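Summary of Year 1 activities. Much of the first year was spent building the evaluation harness for sequence design. The harness presents a backbone, in tokenized form, and records the residue chosen at every position. We chose the following record to illustrate the format because it has been used consistently in internal testing since the harness was completed.
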């Protein structure tokens, strides 16, 4: 990664992704759709070659002039056509033949989403690579695994990260499928019946744009596709939330096993100089909620009146740019966090010993069962030793050795059972399955 992850955030989020969702870029994409349709009409001889050449050469607009026209027309598609017509001249009469506004708006929106998806997929791929590299680095770094927030049994920090690596892989696959679902245009008129535009024109125009043709549509591209895309983003946000929440937990003073990077000159608190707060990860968790909330809006946009109403449009102009920009932003924030994650293996070992061997309880239990004891008889023996050690601050290994039944049945093999390495001996299997080990 680059030396300065903050500059990377600036470039990827505010320039590339932000540009895709700007007003002028949106209108440029709409003009691309209009010109693709003109090409399709021109190939059929409907638009004379000279006029088509003029349209393709001169079609342009000034965004400020477009805004001026829109103040009068109160209609953005009409304003675009009028602004372009001023540049093109008489040949512009051939533009927008047989089309309705939604043909242009929805088809151009598909182009925007496609480009936004490509940026998101690029970032997610880089994040997954960073997580995979960090997982390999800590493949053998033993730490305590926790269930219900309570010490369970040993794992490795690499396996913890490997879970994220695999989930990010599924996130990428989901987003790729959602990108494909959104890669659909529509050039079929007011209620989708091709009344004033030939179906072949739709096919050719969408072909020029690299979009697929729907089998059937009404006035709009159906919003279940949009909901699927937003769902993919929401699940990505859930993964980010999961990762950031774990790092926040590990950075707590009482745990101290890992922490997000703390840059030179950074201040943790205006009042307390000792503070080193997980502000990036808290930022991730907070913004993930926004993306998840936006999914609800997309789901509600699926149901529209009859062949179309406009209740979806205003909401989509908020939730799509916001969600794409947020996910892009969080992706690159997390690349910086993961790449420079501050990991403390010594603290992990210290925490592993916090319960003084109580985490060996299952291994001792199973050894007693294998010796011929009934499980319901062996369980209380091990449980009493573990709870005594935890409550009195003694060592489980010593407490379990005091039990006469344990001495009789597994006394000779007990020392060999109390080995942390036993729990993580198969760790390479997961890394091989994930394709990170040969």
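For this record, the design step produced the sequence shown next.
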């Amino acid at each position: 990664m680059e030396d300065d992850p903050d500059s990377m955030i600036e470039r990827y989020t505010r320039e590339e992704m932000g540009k895709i969702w700007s007003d002028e870029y949106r209108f440029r994409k709409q003009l691309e759709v209009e010109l693709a349709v003109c090409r399709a009409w021109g190939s059929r001889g409907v638009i004379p070659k000279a006029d088509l050449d003029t349209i393709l050469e001169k079609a342009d607009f000034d965004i400020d002039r477009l805004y001026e026209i829109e103040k009068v027309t109160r209609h953005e598609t009409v304003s675009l056509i009028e602004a372009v017509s001023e540049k093109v001249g008489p040949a512009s009469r051939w533009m927008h033949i047989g089309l309705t506004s939604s043909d242009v708006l929805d088809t151009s929106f598909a182009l925007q989403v496609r480009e936004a998806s490509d940026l998101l997929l690029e970032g997610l791929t880089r994040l997954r690579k960073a997580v995979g590299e960090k997982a390999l680095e800590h493949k053998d770094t033993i730490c305590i695994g926790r269930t219900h927030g309570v010490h369970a049994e040993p794992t490795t920090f690499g396996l913890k990260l490997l879970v994220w690596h695999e989930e990010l892989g599924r996130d990428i696959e989901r987003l790729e499928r959602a990108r494909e679902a959104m890669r659909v245009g529509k050039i079929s008129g007011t209620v989708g019946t091709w009344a004033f535009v030939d179906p072949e024109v739709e096919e050719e125009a969408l072909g020029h744009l690299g979009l697929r043709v729907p089998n059937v549509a009404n006035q709009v591209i159906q919003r279940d596709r949009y909901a699927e895309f937003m769902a993919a983003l929401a699940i990505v946000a859930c993964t980010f939330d999961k990762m950031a929440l774990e790092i926040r937990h590990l950075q707590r003073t009482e745990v101290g096993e890992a922490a997000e990077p703390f840059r030179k000159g950074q201040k943790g608190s205006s009042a307390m100089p000792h503070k080193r707060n997980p502000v990036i990860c808290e930022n991730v968790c907070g913004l993930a909620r926004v993306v998840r909330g936006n999914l609800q809006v997309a789901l509600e946009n699926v149901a529209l009146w009859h062949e179309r109403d406009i209740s979806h449009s205003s909401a989509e102009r908020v939730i799509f740019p916001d969600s794409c920009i947020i996910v892009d932003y969080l992706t690159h924030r997390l690349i910086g966090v993961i790449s420079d994650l501050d990991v403390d293996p010594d603290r992990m070992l210290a925490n592993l010993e916090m319960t003084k061997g109580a985490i060996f309880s299952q291994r001792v239990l199973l050894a007693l069962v294998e010796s011929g004891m009934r499980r319901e008889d062996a369980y209380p023996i091990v449980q009493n030793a573990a709870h005594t050690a935890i409550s009195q601050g003694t060592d489980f290994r010593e407490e379990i050795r005091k039990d006469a039944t344990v001495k009789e049945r597994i006394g000779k093999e007990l020392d060999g059972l109390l080995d942390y390495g036993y729990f993580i001996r198969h760790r390479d299997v997961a890394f091989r399955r994930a394709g990170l080990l040969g």
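The chain has a mean pLDDT of 94. Quantitative recovery figures across the full test set are reported in Table 2.
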